[in-house]
Amino acid sequence: MTDPVGKLPSELDQLPDRDPEETAEWAASLDAVTKAAGPHRAAYLMRRSLQHAEGAGLALPKLLETDYVNTIPTAAEPAFDGDLEMESKITAWNRWNAAAMVTRGARYGVGGHIATFASAAWLYETGFNHFFRGKEGDGSGDQLYIQGHASPGIYARAFLDGRLSEQQLDHFRQESGGEGLPSYPHPRRLPWLWEFPTVSMGLGPLSAIYQARFNRYLANRSIKDTANSHVWAFLGDGEMDEPESTAALALAAREQLDNLTFVINCNLQRLDGPVRANFRVVQELEAQFRGAGWNVVKTLWGNAWDELFQLDTQGALLRRLREVPDAQFQTYATRDVAYIREHFFGTEPALVELAKLLTDAKIAECFYTSRGGHEARKVYAAYKAAVEHKGAPTVILAQTVKGYTLGKGFESKNANHQMKKLSIDEFKGMRELLGLPIPDSAFQDGLVPYGHPGADSPEVRYLQERRAALGGPAPARRLHASAPLPQPEERAFKALYKGSGKQEMATTMAFVRLVKDLMRDKETGKRWVPIVPDEARTFGMESLFPSAGIYSPLGQTYDPVDRDQLMYYKEAKDGQILNEGITEAGAMADFIAAATSYATHGETMIPFYIFYSMFGWQRTGDQMWQLADQLGKGFIVGATAGRTTLTGEGLQHADGHSHLIAATNPASLNYDPAFAYEVAVIVKDGLRRMYGPDAEDVFYYLTVYNEPKPQPAMPEGVEEGIVKGLYRFKEGTPATADAPRLQLLASGTAIHWALEAQELLAADWGVTADVWSATSWGELRRDALEADEALLRGEVQVPYVTQALSGAPGPVLAVSDWMRQVPDQISQWVEQDWSSLGTDGFGLSDTRDAARRHFGVDAQSIVVASLAQLAKRGEVPASAVKEARERYGL
């Protein structure tokens, strides 16, 4: 039997057909319908059959794309639970004040965005009035990821509610005076209002998914009942181009996160133009989300379109909607009715006849204003369907017009994202459209006034009553009145204080051992959240698998291949470890959710996220800033750190710069410990600073090394130096009273090269070197900058690094496994002659010894550099430098 020409093989060709004759009859019936009623009727019947099969519970693949219509027909919409007229008035006031705030700010050139909230107003207002739970009710309330460019509308609502003053609105984007409002949702700038920073597009949707997942994690581990918390993420259709926006869709579906809803405002416009000029972004997103396993609710058309669909008995309107690209539909909203009749309805006879039944007013209403996202009943129906859906997350695709109600100068214009103000005449036109009682006399000195119906007005009372019923104001961020965490027992730290004797131990392993012991603490052990992106065995964390368990909402539904081994791969519903697979972005989103749980849920957690240091700040640095903005706390651990400790994997795995990037973040306390006891001291101090009685809004970045070395016992009295960033680890012993002397400062694994160089300098050249452990170049710099600021206030404050090195003889040579810029951060506060060695340049694949010789940071290179500095001072002969290079084969 020969396949028809062009027929591709199918998986069905591999399955036996028990009744080929019946199969042929079905195919013939379909052919008959196609011939008699046309292919569109045949396609409709097929879709109806699939819909019926799904409802009957048959296991069939779902359609990835449905017609360009609303998922919920008007006839199926639930009753609207509210006073629509009152909510329309509230929304009108908020639209006005959002536009007024940005326009007034334009006097100072501070910018702002008007068009986004104008299109999305009902998407927010319906949620605030009916769905978004506040934090004063039962549980933690809902978590709202608000689209950053819509912030003026949120401020406007807070103003109507009495939470913001007119003076604060007038200082939008003008924060330096202390009364201003940040441009976007920034918790660090306005911590009582904003919960999640979202304007770095793509991070909001990613974080929302992992927040919903973390809510379930807390519940499954019996730490917090989060059953009444729903996560809402408000996104733009253009934002969905960001890779992070869709990176975790499958995770959300796989874990059945029905506590999560995405609301995508499909106004078909990016910042500069159409989202999908020649295509249809709504259909694309529907297929993408359906394919990932999400429940999709399309809210595209307002009630005015119902008449058109009822008249479309031949399916011509649906066909036309499926083929019109987004950019053309955007154009329809800006052209006259004659243009729409010609270019939309004039494409086939059936549409021409349909258009004859429509008045110009009806066409104008449909194409200019009637979108699903602009009608409260449509939005309410979509939200209700979302929160009631079980077994999968929901995405609502709501179609709107960007710049809606702002007038023809704004609506659907490509430039409306950059347009910062309306003219007085445009505001007066908007006033008439919205029906607001603002007299002409209120426009003083060319300024548009703010509008408010009064603190005791029906609108404000209604708004506040709705919020009270839903659990208080929203959005809101609360620092719950929870007690500080007790400090863990000392014995976990003492195990590292005493060193490892002759046994070799990498600092990576030292950190893991410490955390493993801390997780056994009766008071705080359950608060630790270990996070790793599928490299747990690399970092020696497999011992945590059977004891702590890997979190999975399904538990372990299979028999693990290593079940008979001591450290087998154990998954559990109450598992403590978040093993994210190969996704640093997902792991960081986990970390952020855990690091801010103290505010979101009133449950303080202690996350530590361990990763290849090269793939932290470099790959997910934007999320590190998100973490800082969100006031997160915890330990970020860059393992296999430095440019020469992981040399076998070449250029892209060789990190010599993460400390430089981390130094740019004011909330990040960055440490590069050399020894296990330093790790213990830093972690202990970090627990005090982040979770103690005077908790600070900081997080820690530690770099640890996978290079096993004997770990010394902690010398007495070094704790302060470890925390502050510098202490003398080993003082040199001068062979003679007048022996040349210098100071070697080293961090991390470089301490071992410096110690070897100390011996070579003494034995081969009669030079005495003191070796200092620089645990934190960044903290030394932070302290020095604070001293500089104090000096400008007329206060004398000597930087710690200056004090520590005061009187130390000879020049200072700093060495690390990082670029020279890392230690050079402190050079200006060192009184001695300064020089540094580092691993500048690209990495390479070779042995550690060869890589260190290549970069000029090994012990012999340190000796040559030391002699060079002493030769400049005339303390050793200049010939010693050349002699040393020849002796060591450099």
TrEMBL record:
InterPro entries: PDC_E1_N, PDH/Transketolase, PDH_E1, PDH_E1_M, THDP-binding, Transketo_C/PFOR_II, Transketolase-like_C_2, Transketolase_N
Catalytic reaction(s) noted: N(6)-[(R)-lipoyl]-L-lysyl-[protein] + pyruvate + H(+) = N(6)-[(R)-S(8)-acetyldihydrolipoyl]-L-lysyl-[protein] + CO2
GO molecular function: pyruvate dehydrogenase (acetyl-transferring) activity
Organism for this UniProt entry: Streptomyces rubiginosohelvolus
Pfam families the UniProt entry points to: PDH_E1_M, Transketolase_C_1, Transketolase_N
Region (Disordered): 1-21
Protein name, as recorded: Pyruvate dehydrogenase E1 component
Residue intervals of the Transketolase-like C-terminal domain: 725-858
This enzyme's EC code(s): 1.2.4.1
Chain ranges of the Pyruvate dehydrogenase E1 component middle domain: 486-708
Organism superkingdom: Bacteria
Keywords: Oxidoreductase, Pyruvate, Thiamine pyrophosphate
Lineage start: Bacteria, Bacillati, Actinomycetota, Actinomycetes, Kitasatosporales
Functional note: Component of the pyruvate dehydrogenase (PDH) complex, that catalyzes the overall conversion of pyruvate to acetyl-CoA and CO(2).
Cofactor: thiamine diphosphate
Gene3D superfamilies: 3.40.50.920, 3.40.50.970
Cited SUPFAM superfamilies: Thiamin diphosphate-binding fold (THDP-binding), TK C-terminal domain-like
Transketolase N-terminal domain: residues covered: 147-300
